[in-house]
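User: Hi! I'm working on a homework problem where we have to compare a predicted structure to a textbook description. Could you give me the structure for the chain below?
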Amino acid sequence: MSEPTSPKPGQIGWHDLTVEDADGLRAFYEQVFGFTSMPISMGDYDDYVLLAPDGSPVGGVCHARGENTGIPPIWMSYVVVEDLAGCVERATAGGATVVHGPRSAGGGVIAIIRDPAGAHLGLYQSAPAPDA
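Assistant: Happy to help. Predicted structure tokens:
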């Protein structure tokens, strides 16, 4: 098996679900699909990375609180972009609205848009390398 590669701009880089009760929903996905979970400390509570039976990350289940307040309770896909600000500008010029962010997350910055048809999509730009 080859080593995993980082998603490139234009590819889906992550999926997560933001809900009121991430603990309960995490348990649901563990029971139904055999996932395990890795807690990610958010200070006074944990969000979770779901792991497939082989240990590979599948996505995340997050609480709808703190920085995640207001994110819709849907499985959100995040497209990797090179320039988040430029992508948001092009999206809004094309009729999208920004419903969350931009803000720091996952070692980079994210924003969530609603496209002209009403579908939500996350955008993710990784942080530049320290020597960049």
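For your comparison, note the following. The radius of gyration is 15 Å. The longest strand covers residues 97-105. Good luck with the assignment!
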